Amino acid sequence: MDPQRPKRLIEVSFPLGDISKESVREKNIRHGHISTLHIWWARRPLAASRATILAALLPDDPERRESLLSLIRALAPWEAVQKENSNLEQARYLIWKAFGGRTPRVLDPFAGGGSIPLEALRLGCETHALDYNPVAVLILKCVLEYPQRYAKPESVSVLPLPPLPAEEAAGPRQGFFFRETDGEEKSPLLQAVQAWGRWVLEEARQELQQFYPTDPDGSIPVGYIWARTLPCQNPACGAEIPLMRQTWLAKKPEKKVALHLIPNHAVKRVDAEIVEEKNINFDPAEGTVTRAHVRCPLCGGTMDDRTTRRLFREGKAGQRMMAVVLHHPDRPGKTYRLPTEQDLKAYSAAEQALEEKRQKLWEEWGMDPVPDEPMDKNDPTTVAGRGYNIEKWGDLFNPRQKLALITFAEKVRQAHAQMLSQGADPDFAKAVAAYLALAADMLAVSCNTLCRWENTRELIADIFSRQALPMLWDFAELNPFSGGSGSWSKVFGYVRDVLAHLTRIPPVEGDSDG
Questions:
Q1: Domain residues of the chain, as ranges?
Q2: Model confidence over 466-497: pLDDT tens digits?
Q3: Is 0.70 topped by the overall pTM?
Q4: Which of 70, 108, 415, 493 has the fewest C-beta atoms lying within 10 Å of its C-beta?
């Protein structure tokens, strides 16, 4: 260490306890936080990154040490950096002054999800971020590069916007710019992403809404509860067994709803009914499968885990829609019912539409739109490594989910093409499309057959509830147009809120003296 260099504040003191508390609290923050932009497992807390950078850049001053530590504490909460304020301005000034009136450069060669470079940028540093993972590079561009490059209206010569819906065509639109009525001056990037995100939703809705029919009373299907099935191996039975780890639909202190599996010996079938509250005279915690060991509700016969896996590999497994989760726009809460003929026909129609759409896009794109890359069958942390005949990434989706996802992907590509046809700068069009693609990617996180119904919160828990891809016997299929958890409106709302937050960070002008 250079004995002439004064010690940095972090070498002498640091409010570790306060920063740790804010870092833990930050895990529950959603709107505007970059953790909602895209999954990145090794993400560092923003509070810890911000505090560490500030303490590492400021020199220690015994006379002002406590005031500097107080500034670090004041900037630790997420709420403290939502808008420009005197504390942020003071932090930037102190860093600038500590470097002799120059803008310091911060390099993160392993930037990952972007927490450290983002906070360096927020503190007024010229920031450089690197990573060898292409997913990380895309995240970094969307967190650091694009919001800074397109922060001001003059940074874009043509702001391409889609045609407004008919009911909004007469709204406040000036030239190429569409402004919301809240009066906030948005960056051109935020305006374009917001407008094209809405366009993608409406274009996809026109094609896909028919496959998610609304109930006659106006109730909207939030999701569909499915069970994988296997044939009972008792020769005298042969019933189709719905594989369910448990049958709770809602398990709250004030609300209890369960699916009751009823043996129908006359036709050798397992029927079901939905039971509420005091009428639950059975234990919903007892399902039909535990650790791949299956019990037939009809005859009581059992199958061990080796037989279960063998039947899956032999193609004997199927799936059965067990329940539909509904929400009415004018009523609170969710309701449940058994699937109807309309539900089954809509799903069957989606299966047929998938094949037509898949072939069409295959011809246009020159590749299968459904992921056909092999999964690692030697990885025991994934369902592919456990011998269930799930070997390609596309096997993680049922036909309606595949149709929905390739349609949203198509609309993102069409949005990009339309922006270019309007004369948009190619780099700007690519930036807008990148955010739309991240939203489509996050839609896939909740639109697959490894998502479970979380009965204590009555929502769909996405595939990354844990850092593994285990087998899921019963799964929840979301309606991407429901507006609920995991739907396009929700995931795109997160993307929009993150971008709105990032575009408020003032651009940093680097020094030209090298």
A1: 9-148, 220-482
A2: 788 999 999 999 999 999 989 999 999 999 99
A3: yes
A4: 70
